[in-house]
Amino acid sequence: MATKERNDVDPQAAVETLRAALTDAGIVLPSLRGDPASPQLRLVELGRVRSDVAARLAEVIRRGAVRDD
Length: 69
What we know:
69 residues; mainly alpha
C-alpha cells in the first residue's frame, strides 16, 4: 500500500474539517483537538470515546471509505 505523506496540513484546520464531517455523520468526539505538546509534528488528538461511539465511527468509515492510493 502506497502512503502519501502530507505534513503541510494545519492541525486546527484538520480538526475543524474532521469535526464537521463527524457532525454530519451524527458523531461527536468531545476531546478532538490539535495536540499542543508537539506542534512540529502537527498531531491531532482524537481523545477518548464511549464504545458505542467508536462502533458508530467504524460503521461510518466502512460505509464511506474511499481509498486514495
